[in-house]
Amino acid sequence: MQTVQQNQIQLREKAYSSRGHNKEERNSAAAHRILTTLLRDYNGPVAIQLWDGSLYRGCEKTQCTLHIHHPGVLRDMILRRDLIKLAEAFIAGHIDVIGDMETVFQLETHLKKLKPGLSASIRLLIDAWHLPSLDHNDYDKRVKAGRKQQANSQQAISHHYDVGNDFYGLWLDRNMVYSCAYFSDAEQTLDQAQQDKLDYLCRKLRLQPGHTLLDIGCGWGALAIWAAKHYGVRVHGVTLSKEQQTLANERIKQQGLDEKIRIELRDYRDLSEDHQYDRIVSVGMFEHIGVKNFPVYFGKIKKLLKPGGLFLNHGITIKDNLLKSPLKRFINQYIFPDGELARISDVNDAMEQAGFEIIDVESLRRHYALTLRRWVQALEEKRQQAVALTSEETFRLWQLYMSGFAYYFEEGTVNIHQILVAHQHDSLTIPLRREDLYA
Predict the structure, then answer these.
(1) Does the residue 145 lie in any domain?
(2) How far is Cα 388 from Cα 395, in angstroms, rounded to an integer?
(3) What is the dihedral of CA 335, 337, 339, 341, to 10 degrees?
(4) Are residues 124 and 270 in the same domain?
């Protein structure tokens, strides 16, 4: 913080510290002392504004301002040391963010490095203890009630995807692709980048007319439609979201592809192994599996894949040091209740243990950062419609989750990999080199 601002804070603290002032002034004084300690030596682009109008910033050119409406936010920050509580405070409306929300996550790096001395730490605890608490009860009860209902995979999927087709339609591309796009450059439109991704998947799978393709977690049918329409394959898609199945079938009928595509509301584990497929693909569904279920997942796919076939798995991975992080817990609690992110090494190992040979691994990390930023921008532009379709809390949850993921994809905490595999010891029919992918 700047010298002038430090002087202003010192004067304010001195004024508020005398006895006889009201509770609101004592809360403000405690909050000022807390922020003075937390933001000492901070020169980043995030400003913080308190409920009394006081503004703290580390530099003149800020990219966003964190408006804290209740002293309990600072209390939780110090006493609970839990970033999830801050996320809940934002979702519940106790915090507002003006400007680029993705920038807020840069504060985490500063706070992790902060190591106040013993006396400063004691003072922080005392000041935080005397601040009033946030009332988490109403929101906590609704969240816990929602999590209690996630007893099986179909309910977990519905929790995320059955928010409503109209809600997703506000900010997704016109083909309704809810997974990482494939950009040629940062200026390319989301619509075109998603079409490029669909085609890239088909080329990686080396689809040929007459092939049968199983699409596990087929979403709203974008890949199934693209593959049937442009590559002449027959597609069997499965999803656990009724909303997705309904819209996918409507779109398939509109394009006259009823005889080439079948979309079912079915768990992949229930697929009959009497029928095998030339190609299998899974895009954005893998995050719901969970590491302990990898043997079942990859084992089932191996039984469903014909000899000489190819399987492509497209999913998010995470760094080892974040397996027990607040980010992971937040995702599991609020975004994918039955989901779990894994290390790429664990994914590769599980695929090999299942009897697959890994042919190609590609990171699309930078592409997902671009994708998420487009989604956030579109969602924020349609805020009124989004709130009308769902709720203010749902809007805030998606805004926070996608902005956070954009930040973590950009700096490399999370990644996304496309992994192409075949049966071990199979006679591969794909080219020796990758030129055909870019032709």
Answers:
(1) no
(2) 10
(3) 50
(4) no
The verdict on 318 and 237 lying in the same domain is: yes
Shared-domain flag, residues 310 and 424: yes
**Residue-range definition of the domain harbouring residue 50:** 3-138
Domain CATH for 270: 3.40.50.150
Across 22-106, the runs of DSSP E, i.e. the strands, are 46-49, 55-57, 64-68, 95-99
Determine, yes or no, domain membership for 151: no
Q: What is the mean pLDDT of each run of 10 residues along the chain (439 residues)?
A: 41 44 85 90 91 87 92 88 80 93 86 85 92 69 46 48 82 96 97 98 97 97 98 97 94 96 96 96 91 95 97 91 64 72 93 97 97 97 96 92 92 94 89 89
Q: What is the dihedral of CA 109, 111, 116, 120, to 10 degrees?
A: 170
C-alpha span between 268 and 266 (Å, rounded): 6
Query: What average pLDDT does the structure give for the chain?
Result: 87
Residue 332 near residue 143 (C-beta atoms within 8 A) = no
Give yes or no for a contact between 282 and 312, defined as CB atoms under 8 angstroms apart: yes
**Where among 109, 138, 167 does a domain terminate?**
138
Same domain assignment for residues 127 and 247: no
Backbone angles phi, psi at 131, to 5 degrees: -80, 150
- Per-residue pLDDT tens over the stretch 93-148: 999 999 999 998 888 878 878 888 898 899 999 999 989 988 755 445 545 444 44
369 shares its domain with 409: yes
E runs forming strands in 14-114: 46-49, 55-57, 64-68, 95-99
Domain count, the chain: 2
pTM for this one? 0.88
